[in-house]
């Protein structure tokens, strides 16, 4: 009895040592231990569920960039390659999970190339838009294996996609002003319309105008920018245009002595910085003639004597030397008298009245009226005005003896003032000389 107990006891002890030896030798009792739990302990085939998503595994590698930048209307490509580090699996599929987020994009599984040309409008606000491109790699068992049958390994990689807005050139659609020409003293409204495809028609996305001095070309164009000011900027959303209104203010300005071509160059810069072509603005500017036409006509009586020829010289002139003067009409010219005006300069007339009074005109006072027309010497300018002058003459009978020299008034307007007017004429000549020197400099 004791012998049988010893034998049983010994057999138990032997079994324990066997287990201990196996454990110490490191024998792997489960060859699938390196796989996920679903593979280690598969269910019987008849009850095995379909694995739709697959099992995520780092043994599947997707090699490509982490970030890629596209630009609207410009084609871009991303090269994607793969590696399977598990020798029991092979690649079965690679795809873009959210390909629909990239309209008209394509992905070639054979080459691993993702290709896309973002259309205009992909960037709705700002300069750049961001989204993710999700790449999925799938792998299936290389050989049929009961333990691996139906198992799919997967791995995903997200690529950050930056889409930059592609600027489009703005366009100056019109430059208009309600005037065929400009004139000193005037205030004019200039309208400039701009189309900017990148603008969202908000103040923060509005285009700007770049206005520069005109190019120096023949004939020389004077610069109008110093007389230009922005009046308003608003949107015309029906026509998708920006409307800029400027004032050209020539009020109280001495811009030209007669006429000049003047203007500037306009260029639009869009919301994204692109610039339009240059558009020149040029207009003829005419001088505003001064109404201050002077003469040597006097309010004193000019004395003439009968029985002899009498002459009275009158000068009419424009102190600004801008107006072209000419005799227009005469009224109440005494019988037998002649009155003629000749140019001494464009803005200076010498008018002469010659008269031999007849006896029936003795001891009388005559009111002689003549009208001078002033206009711009430039033929195209139709501005003109008239100035009326009145000169009184008193006729005396011939003296008995000796015949005195006809008296001439010593006040302003008499022929004896011709010397004074020569001084005026000389002064005008000096002013012209200084002006010419300034233009040469």
Describe the structure.
The chain is mainly beta. The protein folds into three domains: 53-164, Immunoglobulin-like, CATH 2.60.40; 171-286, Immunoglobulin-like, CATH 2.60.40; 294-433, Sandwich (Immunoglobulin-like). Helix content is 11%, strand content 42%. It has three helices and 27 strands. The strands form seven sheets. Strands 1, 3, 6, 9 and 10 form a five-stranded mixed beta sheet that branches. Strands 12, 14, 15, 18 and 19 form a five-stranded mixed beta sheet that branches. It has a four-stranded antiparallel beta sheet with strand order 11-13-17-16, with no helix packed on it. It is rod-shaped, with a radius of gyration of 52 Å.
Question: What is the element layout, followed by pairings?
Answer:
Blueprint (H helix, E strand, L loop, with lengths): L1 H23 L12 H4 L14 E2 L3 E4 L3 E5 L4 E4 L1 E4 L4 E8 L9 E3 L4 E4 L11 E14 L11 E12 L6 E7 L4 E2 L3 E9 L12 E5 L9 E2 L4 E9 L4 E9 L9 E11 L9 E8 L7 E2 L6 E4 L4 E8 L6 E8 L6 E8 L2 E8 L8 E12 L8 E13 L21 H23 L1
Parallel strand pairs: 1-10, 3-10, 12-19, 15-18, 21-27
Antiparallel strand pairs: 2-5, 4-8, 6-9, 7-8, 9-10, 11-13, 13-17, 14-18, 16-17, 18-19, 20-22, 22-25, 23-26, 24-25, 26-27
Quick summary of this structure?
This protein is mostly beta strands. The chain has three helices and 27 strands.
Gap between N and C termini, in Å? 143 Å
Coarse morphology: rod-shaped
Q: Helix content range of the residues, please? A: 10-25%
What class would the helix/strand composition place it in?
Answer: mainly beta
Any idea what the radius of gyration is? 52 Å
Instruction: Quickly name the level 1 CATH class of the largest domain.
Output: Mainly Beta
Would you report the number of β strands? 27
* Largest beta-sheet characterization: 5 strands, mixed
The SSE order reads HHEEEEEEEEEEEEEEEEEEEEEEEEEEEH
Low-confidence stretches: 1-29, 35-51, 410-421, 435-441
Q: What would CATH call the architecture of the largest domain?
A: Sandwich
Number of domains: 3
Please work out how many helical segments DSSP would assign. Answer: 3
Q: What is the CATH third-level topology name of the largest domain?
A: Immunoglobulin-like
> What fraction of the residues are assigned to beta strands by DSSP?
35-45%
Query: What is the mean predicted local confidence, pLDDT?
Result: 83
Q: CATH-wise, what's the superfamily of the largest domain?
A: Immunoglobulins
């Amino acid at each position: 009895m004791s012998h049988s107990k010893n034998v049983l006891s010994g057999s138990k002890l032997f079994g324990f040592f066997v287990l201990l030896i196996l454990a110490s030798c490191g024998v792997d009792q489960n060859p699938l231990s390196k796989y996920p739990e679903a593979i280690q302990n598969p269910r019987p085939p008849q009850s095995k569920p379909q694995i739709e998503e697959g099992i995520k595994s780092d043994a599947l590698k997707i090699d490509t960039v982490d970030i890629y930048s596209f630009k609207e209307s410009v084609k871009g490509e991303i090269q994607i390659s793969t590696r399977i580090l598990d020798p029991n699996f092979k690649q079965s599929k690679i795809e873009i999970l959210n390909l629909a987020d990239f309209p008209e994009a394509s992905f070639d599984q054979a080459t691993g190339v993702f290709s896309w040309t973002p259309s205009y409008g992909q960037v709705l606000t700002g300069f750049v838009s961001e989204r993710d491109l999700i790449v999925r790699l799938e792998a299936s068992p290389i050989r049929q294996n009961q333990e691996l049958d139906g198992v799919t390994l997967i791995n995903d990689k997200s690529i950050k996609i930056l889409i930059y807005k592609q600027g489009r050139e703005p366009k100056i659609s019109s430059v208009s002003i309600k005037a065929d020409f400009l004139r000193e003293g005037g205030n004019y409204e200039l309208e400039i319309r701009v189309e900017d495809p990148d603008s969202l028609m908000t103040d923060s996305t509005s285009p700007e105008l770049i206005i520069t001095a005109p190019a120096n070309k023949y004939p020389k164009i004077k610069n109008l920018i110093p007389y230009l000011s922005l009046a308003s900027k608003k949107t015309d959303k029906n026509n998708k245009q920006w409307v800029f209104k400027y004032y050209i203010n020539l009020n109280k300005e001495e811009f030209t002595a007669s006429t000049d071509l003047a203007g500037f160059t306009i260029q639009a810069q869009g919301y994204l910085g692109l610039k339009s072509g240059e558009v020149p603005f040029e207009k003829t500017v005419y001088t505003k003639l001064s109404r201050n036409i002077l003469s040597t006509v006097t309010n004193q009586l000019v004395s003439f004597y009968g029985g002899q020829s009498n002459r009275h010289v009158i000068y009419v002139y424009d102190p600004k030397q801008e107006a072209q003067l000419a005799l227009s009409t005469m009224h109440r010219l005494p019988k037998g008298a002649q009155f003629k005006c000749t140019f001494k300069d464009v803005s200076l007339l010498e008018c002469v009245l010659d008269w031999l009074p007849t006896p029936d005109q003795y001891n009388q006072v005559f009111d002689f009226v003549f009208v001078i027309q002033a206009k711009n010497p430039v033929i195209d300018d139709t501005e003109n005005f008239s100035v009326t002058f009145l000169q009184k003459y008193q006729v005396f009978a011939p003296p008995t003896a000796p015949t005195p020299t006809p008296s001439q008034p010593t006040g302003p307007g008499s022929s004896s003032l011709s010397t004074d007017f020569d001084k005026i004429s000389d002064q005008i000549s000096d002013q012209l000389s200084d002006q010419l020197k300034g233009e040469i400099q």
